[in-house]
Amino acid sequence: MVADNSLARIPRLERSEAAKLLKARGITPTQQRVEIASILLARPQHLSADELLALVNGYARVSKATIYNTLGLFARKGLVREVIVDPSKVFYDSNTDPHHHFYNVSTGELTDICGVHVDVPEVPRLPDGTEVDGVDVIVRLRSK
User: Fold this and answer.
1) Angle between helices 31-40 and 49-56 (to 10 degrees)
2) Euclidean distance between CA atoms 83 and 98, whole angstroms
3) Which fold has domain 5-91?
4) How many CA atoms lie within 13 A of 34 on its CB side?
């Protein structure tokens, strides 16, 4: 179903490898989930649901609802991280290791902050019966 030569250049995992990754997280590897995983997990990247939909639909027909439901499942199972940069913009990060991000509000680009420990000097008093599970830092940038 590849109608455009540029689709051949999109990095993809082998379907069998994508299916193995899904099974390892307790996810049933349906054809649509395997197609989504083969693109999303091919390399470290940040994709929105709409970006992923466009990429996947170059190979197979998948509805927007299926993309959102699958991304939600992948996030719940720890296969990807949701990075919410504002109420209307969510990225799905294939790198699930702890790390922080730069978000350029001018370009809409999200990039990893690698190899840098970000100190949070004072965490506010936590509600009783809770503990810190993690701290995610998003540094918002604007082009000059």
Assistant:
1) 110
2) 12
3) Arc Repressor Mutant, subunit A (1.10.10)
4) 12
| pLDDT for res 76 | 98
Please state, as a whole number, how many other Cβ atoms lie within 10 Å of the Cβ of residue 117.
7
Q: Which secondary structure element, helix H or strand E, spans residue 92, and what is its range?
A: strand 89-93
Distance CA 22, CA 8 (A): 23
Q: Residue 96 has which token pair? A: 């699930």
CA 90 from chain centre, in angstroms, equals 9
Instruction: Indicate the residue type of 127.
Output: P
Strand partners, 113: 100
pLDDT at 136 over 80: yes
Domain-wise residue ranges, the chain: 5-91
Task: Report residue 134's pLDDT band, with 50, 70 and 90 as the boundaries.
Answer: confident
Per mean pLDDT, which range of 97-101, 123-127, 131-135, 138-142 is the poorest?
131-135
Q: Are 33 and 40 in contact (CB under 8 A)?
A: no
Q: Are 20 and 37 in contact (CB under 8 A)?
A: no
Express each pLDDT in 28-85 by its tens digit: 999 999 999 999 999 999 999 999 999 999 888 899 999 999 999 999 999 999 999 9
